[in-house]
Amino acid sequence: MRSRIMSVIKNAWLGPLDNPKYLKPYALKFNLNGHEKKWELAKTFDSVAVLIYNTERKVFVMVRQFRPAVFCKSEAAKTVPWNPDTPPVNEYSTEPGKTWELCAGIIDRDDKPEEIAIAEVHEETGYKVSITDLVKITKLVNGVGTSGAMQHVYYTEVVDSQHVSEGGGLAEEGEVVEVVEIPRNDIETFCYDETKPKPPGCMMACLWWLNNHSHLNK
User: Fold this and answer.
1) pTM confidence score
2) Which of 32, 58, 83, 218 is exposed most, by the fewest CB atoms within 10 A?
3) Helix/strand/coil (H/E/C) assignment for every residue in 44-79
4) 142 DSSP β-pair partners
C-alpha cells in the first residue's frame, strides 16, 4: 500500500447546522395502520462508486479519507466542545475518522452517472478510464432510514499506463484523498477487517468481484 497521509484537524467544535448545502432535513408525516407517524428524513445527493482493479500489479485501488461523521462517533470526538462561546484551540488526529472506500462522488450536476464515475476515478486516483471501461455492478440504496439516496456502483480494470496524474482529489476544493492499494489475495480479509472502517457498498463490490472473478485470483 502507498504511504498514509497523516493529518490533523484543528479548532474543532460542534454546533447547529446552519444553511446546509449537501443535506436538507425534513419530515414525512403519515398514518400507518391507525398510528400517526412523523419520520425524520434528510435529503441528500445520489452518488457513484467504482471498484478499480489494476490487472498488471494485481491490486485493488481504493481511497482513504477523513469522514467527519465517523470521527464524531469515535472516542476521540467526546472532548470536542458543543457550540462554545469562543472558537476553541484544539487539535485532533484524523485517523479515528478515516475510512477505506471505493473511489466515489456525489451526483451534483446534470452529467450521467457514468460520466461522473470516470471523472471521479481521474480526480481521486489519477487513472484515466472511459465510459466503455465501466461494468455496472448494481444500484444500491443508502441510508434507508434517513435519506434513501441511491448509489450507482461500477467496476473497471486498469493498467499502469492509464495512471496519468497523482490523484488525491481536487485541491481547490480542499479534498485530501489518500490512494491505497490492496493486493487481490487480501481482499476477502480486508472486507471483514473491522480495523479498516468501510461502507457496505465497498464490501459488496469486493465480494461481487470474488464471486465473479475468482479465476483472476489463481
Assistant:
1) 0.92
2) 218
3) CCCEEEEEEEECCCCEEEEEEEECHHHHHCCHHHHH
4) 149
Cα–Cα distance, 217 to 204 (Å, whole number): 17
Query: Residue 99: beta bridge partners?
Result: 65
- 89-106 pLDDT, tens digit per residue, is 999 999 999 999 999 999
Q: What is the distance between the alpha carbons of residues 74 and 78, in angstroms, rounded to a whole number?
A: 7
Place of cell 472506500: 101
Q: Long-range contacts for 1-4 (Cβ within 8 Å, ≥24 apart)? A: 1/180, 1/181, 1/182, 2/178, 2/179, 2/180, 2/181, 4/64, 4/178
| Collapsed DSSP state (helix, strand, coil) of residue 30 | strand
The cell for 50 is 467504482
165-177 pLDDT per residue, tens: 988 776 666 678 8
C-alpha distances in Å from residue 201, one per residue of 15, 21, 45, 96, 152 = 30, 24, 16, 20, 10
Give ∠ CA 178-184-185 in degrees, rounded to 5.
Answer: 125
Residue 74, phi then psi, degrees to nearest 5: -90, 165
- Cell numbers that stand for 208 in this block: 461481487
- Contact 146/41 with Cβ under 8 angstroms? yes
